[in-house]
Hints:
Four copies of one chain form a homotetramer.
Chain A: H1 13-21, H2 34-47, E1 52-56, H3 59-70, E2 75-80, H4 84-87, H5 92-97, E3 101-105, H6 114-122, E4 132-139, H7 150-162, E5 166-171, H8 174-181, E6 196-199, E7 210-214, H9 217-220, H10 223-229, H11 238-249, H12 252-270, E8 283-287, H13 290-298, E9 304-305, E10 313-317, H14 324-336
Helix pairs in contact in A: 1-11, 2-11, 8-12, 12-14
Amino acid sequence: MDFLSDNAAGVHPAILKAVADASGAQPRGYDGDQWSERLDAAFSDLFGTAVKAFAVPSGTAANALGLAACVPPYGGVWCHSEAHVDVDEAGAVGFYTAGASLMLVPSPAGKLTVDALDAAAARRRGDVHQVQAAALSLTQATECGTVYAPAEVAALAGWAKARGLAVQMDGARFANAVAHLGCSPADVTWRAGVDMLSFGCIKNGGMAAEALLVFDAKLAETIPVRRKRAGLMPSKGRFAAAQLLAMIEGGLWLESARGANAGAQALAAAAPKRLLYPVEANEVFLRLTPAERETLRAQGFGFYDWELAGPDAARFVVRWDQDKAAIDALAAAIARLG
Amino acid sequence: MDFLSDNAAGVHPAILKAVADASGAQPRGYDGDQWSERLDAAFSDLFGTAVKAFAVPSGTAANALGLAACVPPYGGVWCHSEAHVDVDEAGAVGFYTAGASLMLVPSPAGKLTVDALDAAAARRRGDVHQVQAAALSLTQATECGTVYAPAEVAALAGWAKARGLAVQMDGARFANAVAHLGCSPADVTWRAGVDMLSFGCIKNGGMAAEALLVFDAKLAETIPVRRKRAGLMPSKGRFAAAQLLAMIEGGLWLESARGANAGAQALAAAAPKRLLYPVEANEVFLRLTPAERETLRAQGFGFYDWELAGPDAARFVVRWDQDKAAIDALAAAIARLG
Amino acid sequence: MDFLSDNAAGVHPAILKAVADASGAQPRGYDGDQWSERLDAAFSDLFGTAVKAFAVPSGTAANALGLAACVPPYGGVWCHSEAHVDVDEAGAVGFYTAGASLMLVPSPAGKLTVDALDAAAARRRGDVHQVQAAALSLTQATECGTVYAPAEVAALAGWAKARGLAVQMDGARFANAVAHLGCSPADVTWRAGVDMLSFGCIKNGGMAAEALLVFDAKLAETIPVRRKRAGLMPSKGRFAAAQLLAMIEGGLWLESARGANAGAQALAAAAPKRLLYPVEANEVFLRLTPAERETLRAQGFGFYDWELAGPDAARFVVRWDQDKAAIDALAAAIARLG
Amino acid sequence: MDFLSDNAAGVHPAILKAVADASGAQPRGYDGDQWSERLDAAFSDLFGTAVKAFAVPSGTAANALGLAACVPPYGGVWCHSEAHVDVDEAGAVGFYTAGASLMLVPSPAGKLTVDALDAAAARRRGDVHQVQAAALSLTQATECGTVYAPAEVAALAGWAKARGLAVQMDGARFANAVAHLGCSPADVTWRAGVDMLSFGCIKNGGMAAEALLVFDAKLAETIPVRRKRAGLMPSKGRFAAAQLLAMIEGGLWLESARGANAGAQALAAAAPKRLLYPVEANEVFLRLTPAERETLRAQGFGFYDWELAGPDAARFVVRWDQDKAAIDALAAAIARLG
C-alpha cells in the first residue's frame, strides 16, 4: 500500500543470488576480480559502443563523480531547476567539483528545452567575472515522471556541444525511460550526444550499486582516482560488480521497469483529469486537495505531498515489486474521489 | 596459497544471510529501516557507551569522513608516516576536508609515540602562517601489524587532548588488535581518549560496509550531511546496516579476527629471526632476499614486496578464512629457507 | 564622459598620501605595523562597537572570505538572484567555502523582502538530502542602486536570526547607502542584526584595499588563517591598512559618496520617466531604446547595456570624482531624448 | 639594526612614484588599463620569451594560484621539506588545488637534488591508491639562502619532465638568486625547463604586488578565472601592474637585490666558521649559542632563532634598504663573538 519511494523496494532474487555467488575468496581485492573486470564489456554490449563502467554506491555518487570529471572547480552545470542534483543531493556536486555552480533553468514538466536554455544563457556573459558552464545535466526520466525522446535529447545535447559542454545524464530511472520509449539504450544516450550516464539500478530491484557509464573515454580518465579518493572504490569490488551484471546481463533491468511503468499507467488511467504531468515512467503526480489526500491516507495508502508542484500536489511512485492488488486498490480509491 | 591481502577474503555466511534477510520491501528508503535504526544501539552495547554509528562503503570513506568532521580545511592531522590515510587512500583526507594537511611523523614499527610527536611538534610554530593540527590519527592495528596497548593509546590521546586535538582511530584491523589485546573494545578506544573509530569489517569477513563510530556526540553532528553529500548514504541503507549488525551482534568480528591472528602467529613461529616487527595482528613482515621470495613464489605463495620497509621486506596477510593447510605449507616453506 | 564603472575612478589624494607616509622600513612585516594594529580600533570607533577588521585586496575577497567563516562546505547562502556574489564573482563563494551553494531569491529592484524569502524557503525541506542555509547575504546599496532602510535590514536579519543564519552584507557601495540614508553606519549594520560587512573603499576613491568588518567576534575567529591561506594577507600589510584608515578617519568615505550620489540625482532628475528603479545611491538605470543609446554614445558618453534588467535597459554609474560638467552634459543629453 | 625579515623593508621611491602616476581616473577597471595591458610584454622582454604575467597581492597567492593551474585536486607536488609552500603558507596549496598533497623531500641546505627525488619516488607506487605527483616546486633562492645554478635547475626540471610533471618556481627571492648567479633570468627559468615562476617584488623594494609568470601558455589558460574567483583580481588593476613595471623596466629589481646580497656577504665574511649554509643570496644562517644570541640582541640587533636548522641556529636577512652602518655594526659584533 506504500507508494512513497522506489528506494524502499525489495531486491530482486537474481541480484541476491549474484551476490551470494561472488562470496568466496578471490585472488585480489578492489577491482581485481572477474566480475569487476567484466563490467566494461557487459555495458559496452548493452550500449553497442565502448563504455567505461564504474560501480558506485549511490546515485548521488554517480552524478557527482561524473560531473566532477567534466566540470572544473570554477565551472558550472546547466540543469533543470527541479533536478535531483540540486534539490536532493545535499550539494554533492559542489563537494565533488570543489565548488562548481549549478545553473538552474526552470521549464515545464521537469523537461529542459532549447528555448529555456537559450533564455537562461542570454542573461549571462562570457567574461572572467562569471561562472562559465562546462556541462549540461539531463534527468531521464525526469523528476516529474516525464521522458525525453531521443530527438529531444539530441537537440539539447547539440545545444550543449555547440558551446563545448559535456552532457551528463542522471538516469536514476533510466530503465523506466527506456521501457517507455521502446528504443535501444544507445538511442537516447551516446547516439544522441550524451557523454556519461548514471545508470540507476537500486530503485529498480538492485541492492547497493549504481553504474556510472562513460561513453567518452577521455572524460573517464580521471574517474578511477576520483572514485578511490572519494572512498567509493570498494575493497571487495566484486559484490557491486556482480549486482550490476545481474541487472543487465539477462535484461532484468527492462523487465522490472516495464512492470513498474505499467502500474503507473494503471494509476493514471484512474484519474486522467488529475494528472499534473504526462505519466511516462513509474511516477504519477496528481492534483489532490488536502482532504482528498487525507481520504487516501486513511485507507492506508502512503505517498508524499509534493510542494515543488504546488500546494495541491501529491506524488505516487510505483515500485518494480509493487503488489498488483495494491495498485488496483489505489486506482479504485482515486477513482472514487471523483 | 594467497597471502596478498585480506581484501580478497571471502564473506562470512552469516553476513550473506543477513543481507538476504533484509531483501524484502521496506516502508522507507535511506536509513529509515529497522536495521539502520538499530545501529547506534548495537554499537553502543558493544562499546558500553553512547555511540553514533554510520555505515560507509569503505575504510577510506570512514577515515576521511570522520576526519572531515574534526578538521577544518585549514587544519592538519598528525599521523604516522606510513599511515594508510597518507600512503593508500589517494588523498581522500585532502578531498573530504577540502584541503587539510597530513602531518607525517616517522617512528619505528608503525607506532607513534609521544616522543616522536613531541619532536615533530617542536619543529612547528603556532602562528597564522603554519597549518595547525586539529586531530591525531592512530592506526590500530598499525600498518606494520603491531598493536597499541590501551595505555599507549591513552598516552597518545592525552598528548592530543592537551593540545585540543580530536583523536581518530583507523581500525581497518581493529578486530585483530582487540583479539590480540584481549581487552574490551572500550578499553582501547573511548576509555583511552579516542573520539572516533573506523571499525573495519570488510577485511574481516564482511562484504561491503564499514562502520564509522563516533564516541563524542558533538563531533558526530555534521556527519549525516557530509555522508549524504559524499554519496555515501545508500538509498537502501538496510543492506549495509544488516552487514554490520551481523558482524557484531554474535561476536563474529572477534572470532574471525582470532582465527586470522592465530594463522599469523603460526607463520611468525616459523621464522622468528626474519621478523621485521612483532607479530600482533594478522600481518607478518619478513626479511627475505629476492632469491628467497622467488623460491616462495615458485611454490605458489602470493605476497607483496614491501618497499616501505626496505628492499628485503615482504608482507604476508592471513585472512579470516585462510586455509589451515596453506598456512602450514607456507610456514614450512619459510622454515626451509633456513 | 565615462559612466561605465566606479572601478575606473581615480584615487583620492588623501589615500595616495597615506600610502606614501607608510613607505619607510618597519620593524615587522605582515600585520605587525602601527597601521594594521590600528585598524580594529578605527573601525570600532566608526561603528560604535567592537569590530574585527581585515584588509583584503578586493570586494570579491571580502565577500567570499567572510561567507566562508559563516557557512560550512555543506551549507547554503540565501541571496538575491542578481547579487554580485552570484553574478559577478566567478564562483568565489563556492571556492572559499569549498562548495557551499548560493540559493537565489528573485525580487523587485534588487531588494530582498521577507515575503520573497518565505516563498523561497517554503519550497525547501530541512532534511539531510537538501542543502541547508547557513547565511543570508544582503547587498547595500543593491545591484539596482536601491538602498535598504535600517528597518528593512532589521526585518531581513530578524528572519535570518530566527533560522540560525548569519547575516553578511556586501557593502561595495555601503558608503553611498549610508550617505543616502543619513543614518549612522551602525544603524544599518550591527544594530539591525548584520554580523559582517564588506566595507567598500575602492570604488569610492580607494586604491587597492577593502575592509572585511566582523561584528560578531566568534565569527571572526577563523578569518586570520583563512585570509593567510588564501594569499590575501599582504607581507607588507601597512599599505592596505593605511589606505583604509585614510578613508575612514577623516570622514572621506562619506564625503566622496555624497558627491557621487548627488551626481546620480542630477541624472535621475533629467529623466524621471525613464527610471527603472528609484535612484538612491550612485547608479542610475534607465529605459533607453537601442537608438537612444546609440545617440548618447555618439556624443561620447560611456555606459553599459544592462541585460539583467531587460533589452531596453542601460546603467550609468557616477564616480566620486566624476566631472561636474560631464554629469550636466549627460543629463542634458538624456533630457533631449524626450 | 633589524635583520628579521625583508618583508619589513621600505618601498623604493620609484615604486611609490609609479603608483602615484597611475592614480587618475581610467576608462576601465580591472585589468583594462594601460599598465595591466603592458605587463605581458614587459615580462616577455625581460625573459626573452612569451610570458603571461599576472599581478597578485602576495607570494603565497602566486605560488598557490600557479600550482592550482598545474595540479589537479587528486595530484601531488614534490617540494623540499623546508619549502615555504609547506612551512609558511598555511596550507594555501591545499586550498587553491582543492586538496592536493605536498610531497616533502628532505635534502641538505634547502636544495633538492635528483638523488633525493629518486629516493623519495622509489618509496611510492603508480597505482590509483596513491597520490600521483603532477608538479615539482623549486625555491630560488632557497629557504636556506642557497641558489640553484642553471644546470642544477635543468637537471631537476629534466627529472620532472621525464615524469610528466610541471615545474613551478617559488621566486620570492628570485632577484637575489639572479644577482648572485650573474646569468640572465631566462637561463635559470624557462631555458632550464621551468614552466612558471612566482617573481618576487615585495621583499625587494616593492609594495603590494608580486608577479606570477607563466612560460607555458597552455598552463596559463585557467589562471584568469582562478585569479578572479580567489578575489586576487583587483578592481583597479593598474596599481599592482604599475608597481611591477616600475620594478623591472629600469632594472631596479637586480640593483636592489645586488645591494642586499652584498650586505649578506659582509656578514658572512665576519663569521666564516659559523655559517650553516653557503651565503648566496641575502640570508645568512649562523651557528650561535643562546648566550651569543643574547649578546647580539642586547646590542639591539634583531633576528630570528631558526629551529628548523637546529637549536643553535639563527637567521639574519639583509634588506635592500638596510643601513650600511647597521651591517658593519652587526658584522663587527659577530666577529667579536670569536
